[in-house]
Structures are given as structure tokens and as C-alpha cells.
Amino acid sequence: MGKSKNFSGQPIFNQLIKFIDKSEIREIARQHDSERYVKKFTTYNHLIFMLFVAFEGYHSIREAILGLLANAHKLSHLGLSYLVRRSTFSEANQRRTSKVFGDIYMSVYRKHSSVLADSRLSDADLHTYLRARGSAAAVNSLSGLDGYLAAILVGPKFIDPRIWVADLAGENAMMAAEGTQDALAVQAIVHHFNTISVIMSDAPDQYRPRFDTDRTGKPDPLFWELGFYQGVALAKRSWAQVTNPKNPGRPIFDRLYVPLENKKALPPDIDRVIAQAVLALKEYFTPQRMKSFR
What are the helix and strand counts (H, E) for the chain? Predict the structure, then answer.
């Protein structure tokens, strides 16, 4: 976006929230009835606090609340008028539907998209980028990337993006200058991650793994499977509860492993079978993943 004197001398976070129209937030909240029984922690406050959490890179509610306390002297710069209690934030996360925030995102995006650059690589260019990185990248194809990101999203613990982005694009990619190949690749990778995450959460019936196809046009899940296992390796010890044949959780993993084991006799609906297996793993691990956010 272009520079504006209106932002001169203002903190970066305060500049960011200037792009959010409170009246639009209130209207979207009304459409979703997300202010019912709310006295203080409105949808707007909820949004601002979540942006603060993302902006600061916090990974748990406890960490976020402590961060807010540390910034108590500049709440006005954060767009808040009071300190949010941990219990209030937890209850709001459970009560408010994620769809209200999805609609807010689309509203802000539509309003400002005309001045946003297309700041990511195309699928074809990202595929070329990953192939060029060779053994330095965790995966070398879009199919492999899809499997890798799926494992990160459904696994038993949160994986810091700084770890998996570096695993794909290199340790310095997240600090690459705007417009460079590395910076555009990071944006494309994060876009793929967000796309899978939204589909799994909001439209799980539509989720399908991204398989390659063989010469006959049939699905070829090999690189997706290898990518998925690379993602598992990021938290190998935590995944052992389902990957170790001796553990009681193994049957849930076999829903994915067994159909992929015999490449010469894949089910005709292998994409649907694996999609259901991935979503089953997501459901199985959800309580464990959520523990750090209580």
C-alpha cells in the first residue's frame, strides 16, 4: 500500500488496524449474531487481540495474556481499552464461530485488494523453486508440499512456522527482501498452508489431498505420501502414539498407511480414502493440540 502521512509517528500495529472499519465489523458480527450475551469483549476486540497474538508470534493463550500485560501501558496503541482476561478469551474462542472472522477477512481484502501486489509465486513457479532446491528442501513438488503441510496441520503438536518454512525455503527465506524469489516462495507456501487449513476447518467434506497423476491419468500418491512422512518427522516422538505398531493409536494411522502401501492396487477413490484418514488424524489429535491453548 502507498505511504500516507496519516500514519506518521504511529506504532506499526496501530497503523495496521487503521485498515479495519469498525462499522463493517459490527455489521458482520450482527449477521453472525456473534455479540449475543457479550458485555465487553466484542467481535472487534476479539479480532484485534487475535491480530496482536499473531503479530507478536505467541503460541498459547497464557503467553498471549502475559504479552498483553507487558504492554498494558500502551493498550490504546493496540486498539483495546482494557486488559483481556484469560478465561474471557478462552470462552470467546469457543463461543464465536470462525466464519465471522472469515467474513471479516474477505471484507477487508475486497476493500484493499486493488492496491495489493500479487506477492507470491504461481503454482508452476513454486514447483520449479522446490525442485531447484533439491535435497536442501524437505519436499521437491507441489504434491509433496501438500502432504507435508497436511501432516503439520493435523499432527499432535504445534510446529513453529519458522521451522517448517526454513525446512522448505531455507533458514533466511523469512527475512528475504520483498519481491525476491525467496520472499515470493514463502508467501506461496504460506498461502497453500492457509488454504488447506481453511478447507479442513470450514469445509472438511471438500478436502482432498493433492496427488500427482501417472502416465495413464491415474492418481499417484507417492510424493504426497513422502511429503506427509516428512511432516511427521518434525514431531516424530509425538506422532509415535499412532505410528508405532505397538501403541494403541496405530489403527488410526493405518487408515492412511495401509491404502498407500500397495501402489499397484490403489482404491479407485484413493483421494477420498486418504482425505478421510487425514481428517480422522486431525480429530484424534485435536485435544492434544489444544492443550497448549488453554
Answer: 14, 2
For residue 85, give the DSSP letter: P
From the options 1.25.10, 1.10.287, 1.20.120, 2.60.120, give the CATH code of 123-293. 1.20.120
- pTM for the model stands at 0.69
Q: Where are the domains of the chain?
A: 10-115, 123-293
Give the Cβ contact number of residue 86 at 10 Å.
Answer: 14
For the segment 50-66, the average pLDDT, to the nearest whole number, is 84
Contact yes or no for 157/288 (Cβ under 8 A): yes
Residue 220 CB coordination number (10 Å): 18
Contacts 24+ apart (CB under 8 A), 248-252: 249/284, 252/280, 252/281, 252/284
Q: What is the pLDDT of residues 255-271, one digit of tens each?
A: 999 999 988 889 999 99
CA distance 275 to 294: 28
Tell me how far apart the alpha carbons of residues 257 and 243 are, in angstroms, rounded to a whole number: 9
Q: Which residues pair with 219 in a beta bridge?
A: 213
**Rounded Cα distance, 137 and 131, in Å:** 8
Tell me the pLDDT band of 225, cut-offs 50, 70 and 90.
very high
153, 227 Cβ separation under 8 angstroms: no
Looking at the DSSP assignment, which residues form a beta bridge with residue 220?
212
What single DSSP character describes residue 267? -
